Amino acid sequence: MKAYSYFPGCSLERMAASYRLSAAETARALGVELRELEDWNCCGATAYFHIDELLAATLCARNLAMAEQEGLDLVTPCSGCFKNMYFTRAHLREDPDLAEHVNTALAEDGLQFRGTVQVRHLIEVLVQDVGLPEIKKRVTHPLRGLRVAPYYGCQILRPRKGREDDEQPRFFEDLLTTIGASPVDFPLRDRCCGGSLIVTHRQAALSMAYALLQDAIDHEAEVIATVCPLCQVNLECYQRHVNRTFGTNFGLPVLYFTQLLGLALGIPSQRLGIGKELISPAPVLARVGG
Amino acid sequence: MARTLTFEQEIANLFYAMDSNPVQACIQCGICSGTCPAVAFMQHSPRAIIAMIRAGQKKAVLASNTYWACASCYACSVKCPQGIDVAAMMYGLKRYSLWRNHYRTVPLGADFSRRFVRLITKYGRSYEPGLAAPYVLRHGFRGLLDEIRTALGLLRKGRLPLLPHRIKRAESLRRVIWQILPVGGRA
């Protein structure tokens, strides 16, 4: 069983509890051990970078330093946390002066950043390290005929982390195909949902969510799958607000990719946090035996 | 002799620690504005903001809502043919306006960021109700009703945290933060 340090991120504590449950269940079923960092802190989201970059880097570096003590690569299911910690690691490794400054601060907590562990997103670990052939072998309840809009969102793809394809990514569609579902063509799959603006610029955020929901409906999706808690909350919990603002009548369920994967692996829906939605996926899932 | 930087040079300097070309490289092609999902809500498009920075229109740039309407999705940054990290520039403008106390002229964004930082300094983790609640009256009466119904729905589903979670070493984290930026009082 391959082990990783695990950084769930603040949203998973409550708001995205179903992501926490389904990530743990699917990882276990696929032989991946996620060891939660003992006293992790918030990655800083976008707000810290608005105030001070060095401070934002320090917050992320504290988590990275704790993962280094464990000697395990750091995995997170949140795209925002992933992007912040990925680039903090990269910047600190490129800039020894910056790293030294951050380390002076971290010493107050008995920690030191050395840049020895990698930062990974959970979907990347499952698709690349476990691998699609291995996942396919373990699928007992393929989600046959379920039309899923694979919503990548922004931070998992951008800024570009390495040599991956940020224009025509395939990994989400490939995973959905592996579990028997039918990924729909979803042109806006990498367009921002506006989640980070939901408090500060409500009108912009709702308009961005509206465009995505309409696009998913236009392409006959029955459910949207996400890889980020902020996207899930914005697209699901604010669908009511979108409907009122734009005169629409959307009722499109939004699930985490780990929930769909878990169902395909035969994990009971309750253990995947299904039932915690504001827009129930039950009618759609009933059709595929979920 | 002390040299005064132009506004354009100041903004170029904000590309700190970024692997990016400076705003001077801009060819005004407008791809940033074309890819931006929030451009309809900006007083000036990203392309226009860069042109205004280069023309030294400091007041108009800082008074614009453009950088606070940026959702940091980096669509512009990965598409720019000149390798300018436009989203990083928007972050830079946010910091610049906060430092210069221009933030009172823009809606919510700056206030929200400051509230967020105070929360993390205190608890070490985020707490959604503490972030969203101060703003519920900003979205109109219908918006408030929507907000209440959503909050009740989340509460019923056990998704609303009732109390913030304080990390165990919150005091050490506070001392760490204080080494960088003396916010939230003495460590």
Most strands sheet of chain B: none
Structural class of chain A, by secondary structure, is alpha/beta
Tell the overall outline of chain B. globular
What is the fourth-level CATH superfamily of the largest domain in chain B? Alpha-helical ferredoxin
Say what the CATH topology of the largest domain in chain A is.
Rossmann fold
Rg measurement of chain B, Å:
19 Å
Distance between the termini of chain B: 38 Å
Query: Would you count the extended β strands of chain A for me?
Result: 8
**What would CATH call the class of the largest domain in chain B?**
Mainly Alpha
What number of domains of chain A? 2
CATH architecture group name of the largest domain in chain B: Orthogonal Bundle
Task: Tell me the helix content of chain B.
Answer: 40-55%
Biggest interface found: A-B, 70 and 68 residues
Bin the strand percentage of chain B. Answer: under 5%
CATH class assignment of the largest domain in chain A: Alpha Beta
Question: How many independent structural domains of chain B?
Answer: 2
Reading the helices and strands of chain A in chain order gives EHEHHEHHEHEHEHEHHEHH
What's the CATH architecture of the largest domain in chain A? 3-Layer(aba) Sandwich
Average per-residue pLDDT of chain A, rounded, comes to: 95
Q: In words, what does this structure look like?
A:
The complex is a heterodimer of chains A (290) and B (187). Chain A is built from twelve helices and eight strands. With 290 residues, chain A is an alpha/beta fold. In chain A, helix 3 (53-70) crosses helix 4 (79-94) and helix 8 crosses helix 10 (239-246). The mean pLDDT of chain A is 95. Chain B is mainly α and 187 residues long. Chain B has two domains: 7-105, Alpha-helical ferredoxin (Fumarate Reductase Iron-sulfur Protein, Chain B, domain 2); 109-180, no CATH class. Chain B contains eleven helices and no strands. Chain B has helices at 7-13, 31-35, 46-54, 58-63, 66-69, 75-79, 86-99, 109-123, 128-132, 140-156, 170-180. The interface between A and B is large, with 70 and 68 residues.
